[in-house]
């Protein structure tokens, strides 16, 4: 039985902040790094969305948006998966926003869980997990995937890749849905790059170190980034894309549109050049005035492309991402 995306929706806080103000406040360096990229010059983001809301509040608003758009009620949902990739309201092994979302939307019979370790690839990890559960359990017919992020103050910049925006994205997957039918999904990872980006947390506090907010800030190992990620990134994209296309019997020529994260202009440029994809076939609209909304980029960029007419009924769409962890992922849908 086909499984499709019944609806996708997002929430972006109305308040915004200028990226140059963020870069100055966070003391982001000038100058070039790998591939002669200057982060400040080549990022291509002018402003991002910011909020003082808790991440769970963002997730709840996002979930309510997708419920409203889908036309179903919360009581019809069998499973809720929270795929937020950043630390949330509480930092602990047993908490996610899924239960709070369940209560807020009246999904009284849904099972709640989270899958939050794939960085921006958590979108694909959550979707792949949902598909496996839906196919193995006849009682799981409708699934809500939801994420909500609020980046900590003075930690909006993920140098040297992007500047993060607050916001959320959500999908409803449904058996027998003929809209955005999921044709295949693949994920691959390189475990030794697990700590290219990381959030230390209080567990990493040294005995004589004062507890501070910086312990929940993102850190980048620039040496590992340059030597581990940069030189392998597009090789791994080709690998995961080719693996997926081979399995579903398609080629790159069959893909009408690509949904890709809004990291930066230089990253989008290299993605298109490395994979020989025309820029007009790749989602870029949100970069300048929104920036990178973590794992929700894939939801938001898909939804905006549908709203703008870039994705039309019957189009074959590939949604791709990479994520700190470190993973590469792709899914193909027939819209």
Structure commentary:
- There is one protein chain.
- This protein folds into two domains: 3-178, Thiolase/Chalcone synthase (Peroxisomal Thiolase, Chain A, domain 1), CATH 3.40.47; 184-334, Peroxisomal Thiolase, Chain A, domain 1 (3-Layer(aba) Sandwich), CATH 3.40.47.10.
- The chain is of the alpha+beta class and 335 residues long.
- The chain has helices spanning 19-25, 39-42, 55-70, 98-105, 122-136, 222-230, 233-248, 265-275, 287-290, 297-307, and strands at 3-11, 16-18, 47-49, 79-82, 111-114, 142-149, 157-158, 162-163, 167-175, 181-189, 197-198, 219-220, 257-259, 316-323, 327-334.
- The protein has ten helices and 15 strands.
- The model has no long low-confidence stretch (mean pLDDT 92).
- Pfam families: ACP_syn_III, ACP_syn_III_C.
- Residues 245-334 form the Beta-ketoacyl-[acyl-carrier-protein] synthase III C-terminal domain.
């Amino acid at each position: 039985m086909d499984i499709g995306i019944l609806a996708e929706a997002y929430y972006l806080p109305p308040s915004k902040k200028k990226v140059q103000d963020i870069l100055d406040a966070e003391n982001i360096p000038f100058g070039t790094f790998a591939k002669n990229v200057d982060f400040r010059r080549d990022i291509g983001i002018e402003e991002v969305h910011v909020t003082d809301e808790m991440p769970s509040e963002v997730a709840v608003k996002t979930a309510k948006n997708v419920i409203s758009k889908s036309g179903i009620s919360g009581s019809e949902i069998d499973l809720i998966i929270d795929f937020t990739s950043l630390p949330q309201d509480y930092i602990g092994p047993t908490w996610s926003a899924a239960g709070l979302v369940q209560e807020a939307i009246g999904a009284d019979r849904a099972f709640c869980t989270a899958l939050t370790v794939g960085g921006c690839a958590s979108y694909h990890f959550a979707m792949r997990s949902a598909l496996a559960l839906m196919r193995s359990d006849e009682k799981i017919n409708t699934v809500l995937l939801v994420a909500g992020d609020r980046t900590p103050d003075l930690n909006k910049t993920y140098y040297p890749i992007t500047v993060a925006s607050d916001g959320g994205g959500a999908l409803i997957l449904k058996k027998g849905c003929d809209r955005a039918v999921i044709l295949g999904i693949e994920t691959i990872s390189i475990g030794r790059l697990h700590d290219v980006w990381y959030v230390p947390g209080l567990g990493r506090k040294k005995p004589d170190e004062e507890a501070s907010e910086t312990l929940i800030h993102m850190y980048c190992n620039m040496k590992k980034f340059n030597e581990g990620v940069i030189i392998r990134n597009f090789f791994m994209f080709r690998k995961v894309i080719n693996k997926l296309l081979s399995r579903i019997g398609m080629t790159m020529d069959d893909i009408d549109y690509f949904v890709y994260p809004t990291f930066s202009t230089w990253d989008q440029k290299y993605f298109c050049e490395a994979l020989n994809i025309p820029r007009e076939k790749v989602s870029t609209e949100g970069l300048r005035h929104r920036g990178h909304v973590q794992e929700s980029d894939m939801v938001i960029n898909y939804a905006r492309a549908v709203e703008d007419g870039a994705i039309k009924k019957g189009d074959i769409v590939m949604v791709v991402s990479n994520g700190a962890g470190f993973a590469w992922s792709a899914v193909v849908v027939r819209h």
